[in-house]
């Protein structure tokens, strides 16, 4: 890592650790989350079929709608705020929305894509659709709650919408969708202003519905993830000293620069909003670069998958099985120590990695209600 960047990262971590000594100054009675698979707690599974085993095996004991062996960062956020895990808005079975709702679905982009899930692997529930779902939920939940009885216990009170924390973790799929469509990194970069513009509109729309507290993650180092690295042949010279693709990580950094600028503009235009910009890129990159120093044995190599340099194969996903001598066996099988791996399935982080990420950003929660 560049010495200057290393110093800045160390300073950032020191500041975070220093602030962790303060008690929580903010109280959020609910969370409303928007995003992709990094924070999907069951949306895509409800719409298109459950993410099967071994997903969920490290904590829930069985599949729980998450593309992970256990909990996601959003789960740790909910825990730290003393709230239940978020129910997916699309999941009608056993859901309780009294403390918020999750509109995220795996594969979701900010900008709507002109393709189906089966064609591209990207979700039709783009950020604009997620806002429409939230808008309808906000209005209809109050109508239904007024009926009394069980509805009062399953749906949020009206004043919760202005007191809740609105979390966003989305944008990664917009970058990879362009790259997967054979566009150059430079061509994908030119699309960033339009993507960021649509993101800003979503924040403004939620603000118009009474949202005041926003928690926005930037996007991670996509050049360190097997599903991106393995998509097309990459020249050896394009890899950095840590095994990540430099140009793809630069693309994520450029996107994040534009996102941070947009957050500053939103703070100026939405005077009652408290907007936290959370740099998860730096935390995730630190984890890839110094995995062993943080107690991990695997950094780029997936825990759950099959074959190849990264234990990842697009055609043989985590959990895929086949019949061998009359018995069903895993082909895309999990590793023995998922808690020692950074990447779960070539696309998503393990529960252990998510906990590491959360621990580094958690001190900011105590200030998330403060306007900057």
TrEMBL record:
It comes from the Eukaryota. Residues 1-23 form the signal peptide. Pfam families: Lipase_GDSL (PF00657). One of its GO terms (molecular function) is hydrolase activity, acting on ester bonds. Gene3D superfamilies: SGNH hydrolase (3.40.50.1110). InterPro entries: GDSL (IPR001087), SGNH_hydro_sf (IPR036514), SGNH_plant_lipase-like (IPR035669). Keywords: Glycoprotein, Hydrolase, Signal. Belongs to the 'GDSL' lipolytic enzyme family. This is Alpha-L-fucosidase 3.
């Amino acid at each position: 890592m560049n010495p200057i960047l290393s110093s800045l990262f160390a300073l950032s971590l020191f500041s975070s650790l220093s602030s962790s000594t303060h008690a929580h100054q903010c109280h959020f009675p609910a969370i409303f989350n928007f995003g992709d698979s990094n924070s999907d707690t069951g949306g895509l599974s409800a719409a298109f079929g459950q993410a099967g085993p071994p997903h969920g095996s490290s904590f829930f004991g069985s599949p729980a709608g998450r593309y992970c062996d256990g909990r996601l960062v959003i789960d740790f956020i909910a825990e730290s705020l003393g709230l239940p895990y978020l129910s997916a808005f699309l999941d009608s079975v056993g859901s309780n929305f009294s403390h918020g709702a999750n509109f995220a679905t795996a594969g979701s982009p900010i900008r709507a894509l002109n393709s189906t899930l089966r064609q591209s692997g990207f979700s039709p529930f783009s950020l604009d659709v997620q806002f429409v779902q939230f808008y309808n939920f906000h209005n209809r939940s109050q109508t239904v709650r007024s009926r009394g009885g069980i509805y009062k216990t399953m749906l949020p009170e009206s004043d919760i919408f202005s007191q809740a924390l609105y979390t966003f973790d989305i944008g990664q799929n917009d970058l990879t969708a362009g790259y997967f469509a054979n566009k150059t990194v430079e061509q994908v970069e030119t699309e960033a202003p339009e993507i960021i513009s649509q993101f800003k509109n979503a924040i403004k729309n939620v603000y118009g519905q009474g949202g005041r507290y926003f928690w926005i993650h930037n996007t991670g180092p996509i050049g360190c993830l097997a599903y991106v690295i393995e998509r097309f042949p990459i020249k050896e010279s394009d890899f950095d000293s840590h095994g990540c693709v430099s140009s793809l990580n630069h693309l994520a950094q450029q996107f994040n620069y534009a996102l941070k600028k947009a957050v500053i503009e939103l703070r100026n235009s939405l005077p009652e909003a408290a907007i936290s910009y959370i740099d998860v890129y730096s935390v995730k990159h630190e984890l890839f670069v110094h995995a062993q120093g943080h107690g991990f044995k695997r950094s780029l190599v997936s825990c759950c998958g099959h074959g190849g340099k990264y234990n990842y194969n697009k055609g043989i996903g985590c959990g895929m099985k086949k019949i061998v001598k009359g018995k069903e066996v895993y082909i895309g099988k999990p590793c023995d120590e998922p808690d020692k791996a950074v990447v779960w399935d070539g696309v998503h982080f393990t529960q252990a990695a998510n906990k590491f990420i959360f621990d580094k950003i958690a001190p900011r929660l105590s200030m998330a209600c403060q306007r900057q």
